[in-house]
Amino acid sequence: MAWYAPDSFRAQGIIIGLASLSMAALAVMLVQDAWDSSRTTLEQATQQQCAAAARELREQFAERASLLGAAAGTLRFEAEDVSLRGLSAAVLRSYENVEGGFLLGSQKQVAGHIGRPDFPGSQHFDDVAARLVAGLGAQASTSPNLILDHVVDGTNLLVGAAVRVDSHDAVAFTLKRLPGANDPAAQRRRWWLAGLVLSGLLGLGGIVSISIRLRQGVATLNSGLSRLERDFNYRLPSISGDFGKVAEAINRMAVVRGSLETTLRRQDRLAALGKVVAGVAHEIRNPLNALSLTLELLERRVRKGLATGDEAREAILEVERLERILSRLLAFGRPEMENRHVQNLQPLLERVLRVVDDQSRRKHVHVTLAEPGPMQLQADVDALAIEQVLINILLNAIDASPEGGVVKVHVAAESQGVRIEVHDKGPAIPDGIRDHLFDPYFTTKESGTGLGLAVSLEIVCHHGGTIDFESGDSGTTFILKLPANGNHV
Predict the structure, then answer these.
(1) Which of 62, 254, 418, 487 has the fewest CB neighbours in a 10 Å radius?
(2) Integer Cα distance of 267 and 15 in angstroms
(3) Is residue 465 over pLDDT 70?
(4) Nearest-5° angle of CA 251, CA 254, CA 260?
(5) 88-97 contacts, C-beta under 8 A, 24 or more apart
(6) At 409, which helix (H) or strand (E)?
(7) Contact 241, 7 (CB under 8 A)
(8) CA gap 10, 23 in Å, rounded
(9) What per-residue confidence (pLDDT) applies to 394?
(10) What percent of the chain has pLDDT above 70?
(11) CA dist., res. 111 & res. 57, Å (int)
């Protein structure tokens, strides 16, 4: 069974529980042991009490004998017993629960014995007390010293003291009974105490072991999880005990996670491919419209016999534009400026206006290009790429303008390049979408793909230029800055 495995938290928890119970029992045993120690102290105090009472009895007996003189030996035993009983009562009144009396003559007859008031039958010795008193009398009659002794009576303890009365054939003795002072189970409790101490130490060792294993296991898991954040193919090493099950679960989750991420990446690629295809359709729609119009014009002129090579040339140029736009869209994220050089922007702007002319006429929006003045507008650009940017901006401006509105294009030379502004009279751009206007695939149009401005921003940035906008109640202005000599503006 797995519950007793040394690395199992359940087994270690059982050890801790047993250790806790052992510690509780240990506390009880310690209290009991302290009680036993107090009993030992009580026994010693009882011996001292009995010794003091015996000495006082001896002194009172000697004083009484000196007062009676020769008459003391003429008293009958019964009278002697009564007289000494009064003496014993007077002395032992000061010693709580102490009984005592005298042993007279060579026969050591008991006289003047006063028993304990709270101990029925103590006026007469039982066999245990009789043996103790006889033994004390025998020893004291031949010794000038105080004699102390005790007798065990079941769980009770009987303590006695005796002392010889000098120049008299008599012995003064005292007794005191200690109920329950002798406990045969005390030794067993001490062994139990030692066992409980040992189990407590084992429990403490279990706690320390669990603490160490917890720290090691958590450190291993944290290290493995940190590695998994950087390397999805990494797997946690084998760990013993319950942490091993956690590590195995993490490894299984890592496998599932890898499978899910592979699936998600595949789905993301498919979704991105769909968006790219939609973006391609969006970007080539304008050249296709221009190509369609050129071919229609060519067809009409052919029928009238007025056709020239200009229409065919325009159609060929639009086909070439389509090919380059497709190449750029397929290379989105790494645009290349193959035909970049310093050139005049006026022809570029005129071509752009021709491309958007059909869309502007359909919406009845007039697009105007402000005269640039006598200064020639020069910029270091890839013409096709910048045309694509301006077409995207102009189509957005036409789409935002009200019917019959005007879109103004203003071009001006600056110290480091050229500034192109496209202004429309449409509504202001909402604050909630301004920060996302150049995000790929972000759009507010039902038929939009969200690639127009994203592609435009990337092209302008690779030119070293900037693109920005200002929007308010008077309309929206997109500001395009291009470098004059390849440097950043």
Answers:
(1) 487
(2) 53
(3) yes
(4) 150
(5) 88/57, 88/112, 88/113, 88/114, 89/114, 90/60, 91/53, 91/56, 91/57, 91/60, 92/53, 92/57, 92/174, 95/49, 95/52, 95/53, 95/174, 97/176, 97/177
(6) strand 406-413
(7) yes
(8) 20
(9) 92
(10) 72
(11) 12
pLDDT band at 476 (very low <50, low <70, confident <90, very high): very high
Mean of pLDDT values over 384-390: 89
What are the C-alpha distances in Å from 47 to residues 98, 162, 278, 400?
11, 11, 112, 117
pLDDT recorded at residue 25: 66
Confidence at 164, pLDDT banded by 50, 70, 90: very high
**Nearest-CA neighbor of 333 among 451, 437, 166?**
451
Q: Which amino acid is at 241?
A: G
Rounded to whole angstroms, the Cα distance separating 395 from 289 reads 13
Position 477 pLDDT exceeds 90? yes
Q: Where are the alpha helices (DSSP H) in 306-441?
A: 309-330, 346-363, 383-400, 431-434
Domains parsed from the chain with CATH numbers: 2-187 (3.30.450), 334-483 (3.30.565.10)
CB-based contact 367:398 (threshold 8 Å): yes
pLDDT in tens, 205-236: 777 777 777 777 778 878 878 877 777 777 87
- Show Cβ contacts of residue 400 under 8 Å, excluding neighbours closer than 6 positions: 424, 426, 427, 476
The pLDDT of 420-424, averaged and rounded, is 93
Element containing residue 41 per DSSP (H, E): helix 9-68
- Rounded to an integer, what distance in angstroms lies between the CA atom of residue 102 and that of residue 58? 9
Sheet-wide strand order for 406-413: 366-369, 406-413, 417-424, 475-483, 466-472
Angle at alpha carbon of residue 82, lines to 108 and 89, rounded to 5°: 95
| Confidence at residue 318, expressed as pLDDT on a 0 to 100 scale | 72
| CB 360, CB 400: distance < 8 Å | no
pTM of the model: 0.40
Contact, 439 vs 450, CB < 8 A? yes
Q: How far is Cα 489 from Cα 486, in angstroms, rounded to an integer?
A: 9
DSSP state of 233: T
C-alpha R_g of the chain: 59
